[in-house]
Amino acid sequence: MKLDFLKRKKWVKLELSNQAWTSGGGQSPTAHVAQTPAVTTNAGGAQSPTGKSDAGVSLSPTKNPPGPDEVACPGCGTLHSKQGWARNLRVCPACGKHGRITSVERVAQILDLETFSPIAQEVTSKNPLKFPDYQEKLDKASLQSEAGDAVLTGTGRIHNIPAALFIMEPDFMMGSLGSAAGERITRLVETAIENRLPVIGFCASGGARMQEGILSLMQMAKTSAALGRLSSAGLPYIAVLTDPTTGGVTASYAMLGDVILAEPGALIGFAGQRVIEQTIRQSLPDGFQRAEFLVDKGFVDRIVHRTEMKAALEQLLKLHGFASVSVAAVTIESKGGDTHVS
Ligand SMILES: [Zn+2]
Predict the structure, then answer these.
(1) Ligand 1 midpoint to CA 104 (Å)
(2) What gap in Å lies between CA 302 and CA 294, rounded to an integer?
C-alpha cells in the first residue's frame, strides 16, 4: 500500500496546476517524488543550503514573469529554474524565503525513502450543510492535491525511528480544517497511541473551513482531545508550523505541541493583522505574526531551516527516548473505522 500511494497519482493533473505558479510556488511535484531530497543529516548549525549558486539559479531579482521552465521566488521575485528550485527544496538562495510545498514533497524530504504508509486515506470531505458550490470546490481541490484532503496522514521512519505524521496540504483549499481532516488527524493520533509512536504534525492552513460551519469548528476540540489522550499516554507531539498557520488550526493543535518548531519567515497567527489593528485601534509592530517574532515572545521553541528539519526531528525523537529500529521490527496497526465522520 505504501508505495502504491505515491505511484498511482494523477501527475497530469498536477502538471496543470503548476501553471498557476503564483498560487503556491508553481513547482513540479514530479521532480520531488522521483528524486531523493537533498536533506542533510548534519544536526548542527544553520548552514544555508543555498550558499552556492547552482547552475540554473539567477540570484538577481527581476520583474520579468517566469518562463515555462522557471519559478519566481514568492519572496523576492528572483527567477529560478524549476530544477534548481526543487533541488533547493523550494528555498530561495537570494532571500531565504521558504516556498510552500505539497504534503507529498514533505514526505519525501522528511521520511526515509519508501517508508511512508498512509492512514485514513478513505476519509474524504462531504458537503453536510449543502453549502452552495462546495462540492465543485472539493472536486477541483482533489484534482490539484495528492493528499485527497487538507491533510495527509500516515506512519513512516525518520532515520529509522518510527513516527506518526500528519502533513497539511496547502494545495487543498489552503489546508482548511474540515470534518475529514479532523477525522484523519484523530485516527492518526489513535494509531500512534496504540502503537506507542510519537506524533509529528506539519501545519499549513488558512483555518477552519467555513463551508462546514460548526462541524468544522468541532474538529478543533476533537483533535485537541485526541492529542490530550496522546499526552496522557506519555507520548510526545511535535508541531512544525509552516507558512501559513492561521485561524482555527493555530487555535487548536498547531499550538499544542510539546515542542513547537517553525520554518523561517512563516506567517503564524489567529486573526489577520488588519483585523486585529481595526479591533484594537493600534498599529502592530514589524514582523508581527512571523515565526521569528513568535520565538521572541515564547510561542515557538525554535526556528529550523528546511534542510535541517529531518535532523532536528531525529534529535528531538532521540531526546524523548525513541530509537532507531530495524526494518523487520516495524509492524504498525492502523486505526480503522468507517468513512463516516462528524
Ligand atoms: Zn527570494
Answers:
(1) 23
(2) 9
Instruction: Report the candidate in 188, 214, 226, 213 with the shortest Cα–Cα distance to residue 103.
Output: 188
**Cell 508541531 sits at which residue?**
239
> Nearest Cα to 138, choosing from 164, 183, 165, 169?
169
pLDDT digits 0-9 by tens, 123-163: 999 999 999 999 999 999 999 898 999 999 999 999 999 99
CA of 153 to the centre of ligand 1 (A): 30
For the stretch 98-129, pLDDT in tens is 999 999 999 999 999 999 999 999 999 999 99
Q: Which of 261, 270, 279 has its CA nearest to residue 315?
A: 261
Q: What is the CATH number of domain 103-329?
A: 3.90.226.10
Cα(132) to centroid(ligand 1), Å: 38
- Is residue 92 marked as binding? yes
**306 burial type by CB count under 10 A (0-12 exposed, 13-18 middle, 19+ buried):** buried
> Is 203 labeled as ligand-binding?
no
Q: What is the mean pLDDT of residues 187-191?
A: 98
